[in-house]
Amino acid sequence: MTVDLVGLGMTTMSLKPGDTPLQLACQATRGALADAGITHADVDGLLVGSSQGVRPDRLGVTFAAQGGFSDLRLLEHVEIKGATTIAMIQRAEAAIDAGAARTVVCVFADAPLVEGKGAGSTYAHSGGNTGTRGLERASGLLGSVPTYALLTRRWMHLTGGTATDLSAVATTTRAWALGNPDAVVTKPLDDEGYLASPMIADPLRRLDCARPVNGAVAVVLSADPGIDNPVRLVVRGTGRDHPVRRRRAGGESWFGGGARAVDDALGQAGMSRTDLDIAQLYDPFSVVTLLLLEEYGLTGGTPAGEFVRGGGTSRGGALPVNTGGGQLSGFYLQGMTPLAEAMIQLRGEGGERQVPDARTALVGGIGGRVDHHAAMILERAA
Asked: Could you give the CA distance from residue 131 to residue 23 in angstroms, rounded to a whole number?
């Protein structure tokens, strides 16, 4: 049984305080149902993901009730951070394959920007004073930026990578974002502008970091042939891996397990890396794009920095990557950012940024501190 993505709904992506996660989730879901040409009554499964910043809301049953759903056969809250979106897709697929549901909505909502509070304060000071987080706090490692700065410095040391490589990622994703009406950053960027950006945690500058937004994305999955959507996107394969922060033998691996997740997804799809038309990668920081290009084996053996600098991920490149601006310049809604853009591209709805004849996409997700890795292969049905 093939499971298709038949609906996509997105709210306005905002850099200002506004609606609650619940309100945003309802808006995105209504949009996804309208896009699929169905109603709430046609849905018998609901999977909800939300960031740490809105976990007290928990959505779940509250959202199901206030969002207009009833008599659901599947209702769950899913949480493995940036890999949650693909985990929800896998869960929905399994339920549909098993006959436990027929049409499932997956929604992710986030509203970290709250009046009178700084975005990110929840993340920076959570975790207590014991264990790994306790050691990090005692060392001044508050939040993800300094942690990824250490990883960036390690990558530079081992590979010879430089700030020029980071700038290439930032400027390339910004160029893509200029063609995305949903992007929250629309000012052109060049190397000079990148280098003028303030240093946050050496060697990461402000423009190396994704900006939090208030927004939501919802998608509809179904095996119901009665849903009359002119463009059906088939989930051809998925893969996950959870190394639990342990390095595997055999050399340096930035996101040990990432390659295996991609291999599994491609194996299920019966495809190879050369079959991919586009890739939508999880990019909370510029360095992560470089690390994942290498970890996933997407550059054909070319060092990631050289690949990006040479235009490999740009318009007309060998593998267009993060064609909506990614999370760096598009909008940061965890794993829903790459999935939404993959769907837009495969449906031919990318407008100025559309990649010609895009039919296959790799969607990636990472979660936590190298805790979760997820990959998915989507294909536009003939």
From this structure: 36
Q: Coil, strand or helix: which one is 21?
A: helix
Contacts of 186 (CB under 8 A, 6+ apart): 177, 178
CA–CA gap between residue 238 and residue 335 (Å, rounded): 14
Distance CA 224, CA 129 (A): 50
In whole angstroms, give the CA distance from residue 374 to residue 261: 6
Which residues of the chain, if any, have pLDDT below 70?
Answer: 51-61, 117-133, 135-137, 139-140, 245-256, 370, 382
Taking the model in full, what pTM does it have? 0.93
Q: How far apart are CA 69 and CA 66, in angstroms?
A: 8
Task: For the beta carbon of residue 99, count every other beta carbon within 10 angstroms.
Answer: 10
Cα separation, 133 vs 143, whole angstroms: 10
Give me 265's structure tokens. 């997804």
| Chain centre distance of CA 226 | 29
Question: What's the CA gap between 218 and 10, in Å, rounded?
Answer: 7
3-state secondary structure at position 380:
strand
For residues 297 and 375, give the distance between their C-alpha atoms in angstroms, rounded to a whole number: 13
Rounded Cα distance, 288 and 282, in Å: 8
Nearest CA to 223 out of 26, 36, 10 is that of 36
pLDDT of residue 270: 98
Rounded to whole angstroms, how far apart are CA atoms 210 and 322? Answer: 13
Q: How far apart are CA 114 and CA 18, in angstroms?
A: 7
Sign for the CA dihedral angle at 207, 51, 282, 138 comes to positive
How do residues 312-358 score in pLDDT, each as one tens digit? 999 999 999 999 999 999 999 999 999 999 999 999 999 999 999 99
Question: Cα(127)–Cα(338) distance, rounded to whole angstroms?
Answer: 28
Identify the residue whose tokens are 């206030």: 66
The encoded tokens of residue 180 equal 């995305």
Name residue 256's amino acid.
Answer: G
Please answer whether residues 376 and 227 qualify as being in contact, where contact means their C-beta atoms are separated by less than 8 angstroms: no
